[in-house]
Structure formats: C-alpha cells, structure tokens
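Budget justification note: compute hours in this period were largely spent on complex prediction jobs such as the one shown. Inputs:
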Amino acid sequence: MFHGKVIDVSKGTITLDKAQKFIESQQCGASLFFIGTVRNHNNNKQVTGITYDTHDSIVEKSFKEISDEAISTITAEHPIIFIEHAKGYLPLGGISIVIAVAAKHRGQVYDLSRFIIEEIKKRTPIWKKEHYDNEETTWLEGTPVLDK
Amino acid sequence: MKIKIELFGAARDFSEEDYLELTISENITIKEVRNNLMNYIQNKYPDNLNYLEIVKNSAFANDQDVIVQDNYKLSTEKKLCIIPPVGGG
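Corresponding output:
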C-alpha cells in the first residue's frame, strides 16, 4: 500500500496521526517514522523558516517510483509506505516531510525509510528557500536532476 | 512560436510572474531551448552569472510532466517547466 502527497501548508498540515493510521497492519511487525523539521541554523546563518517549492505532479509521481524501487531493492515483505511533503512557508520546528513505513521485520523498515529519503533528496523536484534573522533569503543549492 | 516556461525553485527569481515566455523556432530540442533561455537571461540580467549557472544545471519537464533530456525535440508543447537542482526533505 502506498500514499504520497504534497501538502500545501496554507490549506492543510502533515500529521503523524494520519501516517500512523495509514500504515497500521497486523501483517507488519515493524513500523518507522522519519520526520524532517526546519532547524534554526545552516551554513553559519540563523534560520527563521523555510519556504518549500514543489512541482506537485512530478513530486507525487516521483514518490511512487521511489517507493516501488525501494520495495524491489530491499525486498520488503508486506510493505506499506506513507510520504507527505510540505509546500509553502514553515517556521522553525515545522514538519517538512514524514516518511512512515511498515513491513514484516525491523531491518526492512530501516532500509526502506533510508532509501526513500536519500532518493527524494537526489531527484524529486522540491526546492528550499531559507529565511534568515536579517530578513534575507536564499534558495539552497541542490542536486541537478539529469546528466546532460 | 511562443513557449511558456513555468518557473520553479531558484528560477522563480527570473521573473515577477511564475513563468516567462520565449519566442523559439518550431521543432527545436531542449538543448536549443536552454540556449535560448540563456540568451534571454544574459540580455535581461547581464551581470548575473548565478542565473546562468541555474539554467545550465536545470532539467526541463514537458507538458506531460515528464522530465526530458537535452536531445528531446519539442512537437506540440506550448509549455515547459524548468527544474533547477533539487533538494527537498
């Protein structure tokens, strides 16, 4: 089972409760939550918040592709994957991403979760603009999606 | 013909709108679109090398929301999306 969605934070919120309900299964002996949050510093600057920009439809397709690859690479049994990522402005401590996974055994959920977050960072069209205490902003450098 | 380039991430700084329009020849490739966009940026922001780097390192998505390679030839597209280097999470 899979759920992957971009959440516009002006219209909704990412909640662990929703993730928990989605991944509950009596076939799974392990579940794991990865939660990304906005921290207060980066590159020696005081961060006050982050604006997340997304290409929603490609992001959601990418979440599905990455999840399918994770399941086949890791050969997880009875896998359930829930991914939500924020779009819009988040203050310090705001939840930018939740990856909740369940599977038969603990090793499988650790591997699934790690695989998914690392691939999202490399290839899913999401961008961060940091806001600083001096009111400046910077788009963070990222990873090019394609070799040309 | 005119083509609309929807802007994302750092490329949003290229315009106050969330897109820009380029005049291009028909049936050109993504590589040629990239070169057109670099010319546009050089004319509009002659001192901004950072913007040129963003275009150099960006991918493009077609109107079916598929990321396409430099040798991809445009056919019916009226719009593309620029996909600058990514880094979510």
